[in-house]
Amino acid sequence: MSKRGAFIVIEGLDRSGKSTQTALLLSRLESARIPAKLLKFPDRTTAIGKMIDSYLKSQSDLDDHAIHLLFSANRWELASSIEHLLAAGTTVVCDRYAFSGIAFSASKGLPYEWCRAPDVSLPAPDLAVFLDITPEAAKARGGYGEERYEKEEMQRRVREVFRRIGEEIKGSGLGAWVWVDAGREKGVVAEEVWGHVELLARGVEGPLCRLWTDEIPA
Questions:
Q1: Which residues have C-beta within 8 Å of that of residue 140, sequence separation ≥ 6?
Q2: Do residues 52 and 43 make contact, with C-beta atoms less than 8 angstroms apart?
């Protein structure tokens, strides 16, 4: 059986360096001649993504339940593309994924299980890397506060929900979840991220799992 591509998700608080680290990781994969594709959630180019973009820039208001479902729908828009890329042997790197959706919505007071439900059976990543940084350190970085959720207290709550998600993922056997100290120089962070990704990116044997379900596709 030929190996499929690896599904890698980079998560973290706002301004934790996700965009920088996903770009560095993509470059590293390409240098190693590993076929790779970078995706970002929300994907603000789709019809749904444009609604989300307007909301995040505080240009429009939506009910918390409604915006959560739009974020989930935005991921489902690309779910089949992710599966096709992986089956073709391409490693997929995602800047944010379903875990962010749960963390941010639950931090606003929506029930945790309700937040998780719309993403059940999405493709499960083989590895989730959480770029850990304190809300205080994130606030000190450039551009902080430009979008709706970039408030220190909100980010503190989000970090705690991410911690719960990470523990659940680690205990479920659905891929791996690792914490990386993102408060360091970006090159040091990139080396640690690569250390977690390198072997996995050479190809994965076995089927792709689904988030929060025991069903494994044939």
A1: none
A2: no
Show the DSSP H helices in the chain as ranges. 18-31, 47-56, 64-87, 98-107, 112-116, 135-139, 152-172, 186-197
Cα R_g (the chain), whole angstroms: 17
User: For the chain, how many residues are written?
Assistant: 218
Say how many C-beta atoms besides its own lie within 10 A of residue 130's C-beta: 24
Could you tell me whether strands 7-12 and 91-95 are parallel, antiparallel, or unpaired per DSSP bridges?
parallel
Digit-coded pLDDT (tens) for 185-195 = 999 999 999 99
Contact 146, 32 (CB under 8 A): no
- The CATH number of whichever domain residue 48 belongs to comes to 3.40.50.300
SS3 per residue for 41-56:
CCCCCCHHHHHHHHHH
Answering whether pTM is above 0.85, one says yes
- Which amino acid does the sequence have at 100? S
- Asked if the structure places residue 210 within a domain, the reply is no
Task: Classify residue 39: in a domain, yes or no.
Answer: yes
What's the burial of 48, exposed, middle or buried (CB within 10 Å: 0-12/13-18/19+)? Answer: buried
In a domain, 2, yes or no: no
pLDDT in tens, 160-191: 999 999 998 887 776 799 999 999 999 999 99
Number of domains in the chain: 1
Q: Looking at the domain assignment, is residue 24 inside a domain?
A: yes
- Residue 174 sits in which domain range? 7-202
Give the Å distances, CA to CA, from 148 to 24, 60, 205: 26, 11, 40
Pair of tokens at residue 181: 């100290």
